[in-house]
């Protein structure tokens, strides 16, 4: 709960000048409700509900989904790493935060489009979950491939979006 409040505060602090403060609080409240309900189905359902809720809210308010992906992705990694006590996921938090602040300086990311930090966070989380699944078990089950698929999808979207602006 404390982590959820801290994340909500950091989101509000960075976005309060660009969006109505009430809308930011409503979004974070909806996110924590959706993610909390999603935890009943496991971490994958929880993450999916968070992404769908953010997408729905951004469409409803006519906000840029990729901007909010950049804002919430690194912080979501933090929440997941604390919730799972997973230090491998936690390593991705500073990396995703660095990408969020410096994505326009990355040479190969010519487009400069928003969303790279959120996709980096999703890709890192997927790879970390897959590696932990391999390490902890003597074999892989079908559900262990879900994070690998998420990582591949995130990397594919990054590759598609990296070109010149159109």
Structural summary, described in words:
It is built from seven helices and no strands. It has one domain. It is mainly α and 166 residues long.
Brief account:
With 166 residues, the protein is mostly helical. It has helices at 2-15, 21-38, 43-61, 65-84, 87-102, 116-136, 145-161.
- Please state the structural category: mainly alpha
Low-confidence parts lasting 5 or more residues at pLDDT below 50? Answer: none
Strand content: under 5%
Instruction: Name the average pLDDT.
Output: 86
Question: What order do the helices and strands follow?
Answer: HHHHHHH
What is the helix content? Answer: over 70%
How many strands, which pairing sense, and closed or not: the largest β-sheet?
none
Distance between the termini: 42 Å
How many separate structural domains? Answer: 1
> How large is the count of helical segments?
7
């Amino acid at each position: 709960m404390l982590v959820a409040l801290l994340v909500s505060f950091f989101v509000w602090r960075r976005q309060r000048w660009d969006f109505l403060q009430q809308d930011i609080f409503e979004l974070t409240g909806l996110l924590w409700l959706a993610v909390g309900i999603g935890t009943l189905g496991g971490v994958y359902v929880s993450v999916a509900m968070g992404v769908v809720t953010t997408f729905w809210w951004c469409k409803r308010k006519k906000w840029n989904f990729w901007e909010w992906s950049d804002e919430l992705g690194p912080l979501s990694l933090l929440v997941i790493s604390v919730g799972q006590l997973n230090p491998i996921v936690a390593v991705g938090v500073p990396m995703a935060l660095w990408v969020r602040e410096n994505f326009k300086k990355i040479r190969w990311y010519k487009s400069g489009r928003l969303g790279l930090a959120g996709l980096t966070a999703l890709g890192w989380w997927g790879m970390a979950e897959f590696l932990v699944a391999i390490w902890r078990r003597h074999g892989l089950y079908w559900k262990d491939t879900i994070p690998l698929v998420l990582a591949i999808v995130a990397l594919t979207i990054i590759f598609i979006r990296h070109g010149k602006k159109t």
